[in-house]
């Protein structure tokens, strides 16, 4: 019966095709994507970059981009990282709110490509447990340590504004986190503005008093920035990075103990410190810049310009990557 055989043969081919498609659907995303990633992908990160640290420890980007050489470069803070990005030593980096403002004001060639949700609990201004400083108004006339151009810089600006203190009424002590902690512990400064995990480590080890955190002052946003060549020539790589970062965050949320151990193994921080700073970190998927976070970042830029802390005003939206368009 040729008609029946023809029908059965066609049905077998259809079932075979369906099975093949179902099999493909179970492959990992990186196996399905037709991505032309750059031959060299240099990623700048800090100890606070939880999602990136997880990806590094798991070797996830090396699996996602098997034809690329992935290099991980650690920095003590954002300003140093964005300088490297601007001069072509990095393709991709994650930092806090203030470093991109200073970089843009200085004419650095880079783009905001994505962000995580706000983390106002993850930064604070610390004083010694026995310090006479009790309110933000008590900061007048005091020495405050922080990394220049960092998120802690903006937190300090906002805290002084709230207290009605002019910038000229305090003495900023420009120090990177490690040096600032040493100065804080020996009493060389009156207060220290800092972010996690340095904030959490000091809470665990030194037992300071928290004069304020970022609530009501700074959203302490985290941004992902990229070089112009990466944005213009490899936009699908940027989107793939977001996929992996969001997957890493889901892992942190669902495997808190294992994630804390990975971060501790990388950073050398104690587990108590890592659990403390991860606990106050909200769910943090990564996505392209959205209107509210752009507006919030513009307030950061305007605050620095108002205090004459950057040489010119900037429009944040001018260097925001818009997916689907060239830069």
TrEMBL record:
Q: Where is this protein chiefly located?
A: periplasm
- InterPro entries xrefs: ABC_SsuA_sub-bd (IPR010067), Solute-binding_3/MltF_N (IPR001638), SsuA/THI5 (IPR015168), TAT_signal (IPR006311)
* Sequence ranges assigned to domain Solute-binding protein family 3/N-terminal in this UniProt record: 40-259
Respond yes or no to whether keyword Protease is given for this record.
no
Signal sequence extent: 1-33
Subcellular location(s) per record: Periplasm
UniProt GO cellular component terms: membrane; periplasmic space
Recorded hits in Gene3D superfamilies, A to Z, give: Periplasmic binding protein-like II
Q: Which SUPFAM superfamilies did the record assign? A: Periplasmic binding protein-like II (SSF53850)
Named from the GO MF annotations, one term is: ATPase-coupled transmembrane transporter activity
Alphabetically list the UniProt keywords.
Signal, Transport
The protein's matches in NCBIfam families, at most eight in alphabetical order, are given as: PRK11553.1 (NF008588), SsuA_fam (TIGR01728)
Function, as annotated, reads: Part of a binding-protein-dependent transport system for aliphatic sulfonates. Putative binding protein.
PANTHER family cross-referenced by the UniProt entry: ALIPHATIC SULFONATES-BINDING PROTEIN-RELATED
Its family remark reads: Belongs to the bacterial solute-binding protein SsuA/TauA family.
Q: What is this protein called?
A: Putative aliphatic sulfonates-binding protein
């Amino acid at each position: 019966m040729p008609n029946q055989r023809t029908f059965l043969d066609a049905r077998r081919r259809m079932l075979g095709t369906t099975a093949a498609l179902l099999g493909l659907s179970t492959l990992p995303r990186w196996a399905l994507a037709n991505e032309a990633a750059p031959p060299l992908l240099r990623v700048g990160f800090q100890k606070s970059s939880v999602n990136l640290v997880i990806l590094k420890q798991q070797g996830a980007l090396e699996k996602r981009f098997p034809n690329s050489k992935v290099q991980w470069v650690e920095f003590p803070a954002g300003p140093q990282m964005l300088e490297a990005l601007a001069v072509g030593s990095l393709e991709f980096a994650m930092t806090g709110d203030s470093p991109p403002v200073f970089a843009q004001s200085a004419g650095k060639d880079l783009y905001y490509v994505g962000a995580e949700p706000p983390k106002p609990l993850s930064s604070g201004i610390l004083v010694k447990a026995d310090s006479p400083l009790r309110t933000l108004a008590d900061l007048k006339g005091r020495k405050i340590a922080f990394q220049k151009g960092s998120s802690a810089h903006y937190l300090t600006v906002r805290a002084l504004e709230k207290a009605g203190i002019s910038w000229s009424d305090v003495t900023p002590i420009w120090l990177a986190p490690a040096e600032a902690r040493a100065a804080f512990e020996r009493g060389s400064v009156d207060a220290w503005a800092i972010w996690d995990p340095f904030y959490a480590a000091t809470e665990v080890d030194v037992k300071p008093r928290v004069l304020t955190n970022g609530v009501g002052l700074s959203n302490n946003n985290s941004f992902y920035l990229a070089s112009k060549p990466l944005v213009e020539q490899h936009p699908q790589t940027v989107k793939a990075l977001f996929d992996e970062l969001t997957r890493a965050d889901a892992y942190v949320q669902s495997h808190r103990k294992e994630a804390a151990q990975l971060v501790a193994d990388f950073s050398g921080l104690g587990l108590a410190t890592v659990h403390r700073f991860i606990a106050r970190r909200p769910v943090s998927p990564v996505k392209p810049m959205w209107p509210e976070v752009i507006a919030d970042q513009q307030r950061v830029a305007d605050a620095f310009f108002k205090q004459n802390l950057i040489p010119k005003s900037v429009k944040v939206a001018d260097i925001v990557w818009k997916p689907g368009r060239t830069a």
